């Protein structure tokens, strides 16, 4: 029986997928696996029993990835599972930035007791007139799950789309419409685009990437959209640029004191993935990944350990080992097994940066003694009998 804990509400259609061999616990310390959305785990103590974290979503900047890896805790996310939800909000953001839809709605509400509201509306509407997005230049920074969907949709809305992503995946590249201009120098996006939207993960390398200098380079009257993370943008500089009339509108999904209430900023309260469909997709995907890991030891869509998959174990036993990516580990593991007279039927070892993962199937059942010996090898972070 495995136990899981939810740090945020997770859609029930996902949790239902756990089945009979799982129990939800309110006690984080008891959990074999934890499900999380945006809850901040960075300062949390990680219980010794915890084997895995499932981020029902994309961004993992709220999770201490290296600390997890050092404790042999495998962290998963659900690539693309909420990308359509975000894409749709970005499209809404572009339209809200181009037409004064919000101002117009507020005006009508302010006239709710006026019997002549209809007649007056025809007179007043010119103050809410806007422009169309068709024919405008859209620059997209980051062409992953969300960026590529925004790119294709914007193309279909008649926009002239420019994409920048030096690390684009082959899959994402295949999915992009051929009409999208491939930009090699991000400054070309800053200099030429009417709308600029950012869809990169928050890392030490991307923090503040929409800098004061980047904003200075932008066209007068540019619209900037940030549905990724607030600290990707130098928001102090953004507010100055808005006040100076350089940036026409800043559309963001992240409320904070720097931008809240500032004229021409339209803020949604982190609603990108808050659709029934995205929440369901993310929950289902995260639970699937956690189950495959807990029951089979397989790793798919981890953000701190390598992908590693040996399917369902058909041998007598399977052990898995999280360890440092250093020489001589396999020799030490196999030596312990051969000393115990155990015959290996299958073995896979994969590495990712400083960490590695080894799966070993065996002809005979692994004993606690063997696993204790493997766990005591220097560089081993966690050893587990899966079967
Ligand atoms: N507002 C919301 O509710 C949501 C926000 N997000 C945010 O959006 C981010 C992106 O999500 P996905 O598209 O699903 O992730 P993804 O991992 O599929 O795509 C990210 C893309 O950014 C690219 N990239 C990384 N560094 C870059 C750089 N310096 N310049 C240009 N491109 C760079 C990568 O190559 C990758 O193609 C997430 O990390 C998260 O922070 C994601 C989902 C919901
Ligand atoms: O998936 C992401 O990166 C998101 O930002 C969505 O966050 P949420 O699951 O809505 O708290």
TrEMBL record:
One of its GO terms (molecular function) is phosphoglycerate dehydrogenase activity. It catalyses: (2R)-3-phosphoglycerate + NAD(+) = 3-phosphooxypyruvate + NADH + H(+); (R)-2-hydroxyglutarate + NAD(+) = 2-oxoglutarate + NADH + H(+). Its EC number is 1.1.1.399, 1.1.1.95. Keywords: NAD, Oxidoreductase. Belongs to the D-isomer specific 2-hydroxyacid dehydrogenase family. Catalyzes the reversible oxidation of 3-phospho-D-glycerate to 3-phosphonooxypyruvate, the first step of the phosphorylated L-serine biosynthesis pathway. Also catalyzes the reversible oxidation of 2-hydroxyglutarate to 2-oxoglutarate. This is D-3-phosphoglycerate dehydrogenase. It comes from Bilifractor porci.
């Amino acid at each position: 029986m495995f136990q899981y804990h939810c740090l945020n509400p997770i859609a029930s259609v996902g949790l239902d997928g756990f089945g009979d061999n799982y129990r939800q616990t309110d006690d984080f310390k008891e959990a074999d696996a934890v499900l999380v959305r945006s809850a901040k785990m960075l300062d949390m103590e990680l219980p010794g029993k915890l084997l895995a974290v499932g981020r029902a979503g994309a961004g993992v900047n709220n999770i201490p990835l290296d600390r997890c890896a050092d404790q042999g805790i495998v962290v998963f996310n659900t690539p693309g599972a909420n990308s359509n939800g975000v894409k749709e909000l970005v499209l809404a953001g572009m339209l809200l930035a181009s037409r004064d839809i919000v101002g117009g709605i507020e005006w009508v509400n302010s006239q709710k007791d006026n019997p002549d509201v209809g007649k007056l509306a025809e007179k007043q509407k010119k103050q809410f007139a806007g422009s169309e997005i068709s024919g405008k230049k859209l620059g997209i920074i980051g062409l992953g799950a969300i960026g590529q969907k925004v790119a294709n949709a914007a193309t279909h809305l008649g926009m002239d789309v420019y994409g920048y992503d030096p690390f684009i995946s082959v899959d994402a590249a295949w999915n992009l419409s051929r009409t999208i201009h491939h930009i090699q120098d991000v400054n070309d996006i800053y200099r030429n685009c009417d709308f600029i939207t950012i869809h990169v993960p928050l890392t030490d390398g991307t923090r503040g990437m929409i800098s004061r200098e980047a904003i200075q380079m932008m066209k007068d009257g540019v619209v900037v959209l940030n549905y990724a993370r607030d600290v990707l943008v130098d928001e102090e500089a953004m507010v100055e640029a808005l006040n100076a009339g350089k940036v026409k509108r800043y559309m963001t999904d992240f409320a904070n004191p720097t931008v809240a209430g500032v004229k021409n900023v339209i803020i949604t309260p982190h609603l990108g993935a808050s659709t029934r469909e995205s929440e369901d997709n993310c929950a289902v995907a995260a639970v699937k990944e956690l189950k495959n890991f807990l029951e089979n030891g397989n790793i798919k869509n981890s953000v701190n350990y390598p992908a590693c998959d040996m399917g369902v174990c058909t041998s007598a036993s399977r052990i898995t080992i999280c360890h440092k990516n250093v020489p001589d580990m396999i020799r030490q593991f196999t030596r312990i097994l051969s000393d115990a007279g155990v015959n290996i039927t299958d073995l896979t070892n994969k590495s990712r940066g400083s960490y590695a993962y080894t799966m070993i199937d065996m002809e005979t059942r692994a004993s606690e003694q063997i696993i204790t010996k493997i766990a005591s090898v220097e560089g081993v972070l966690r050893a587990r009998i899966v079967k």
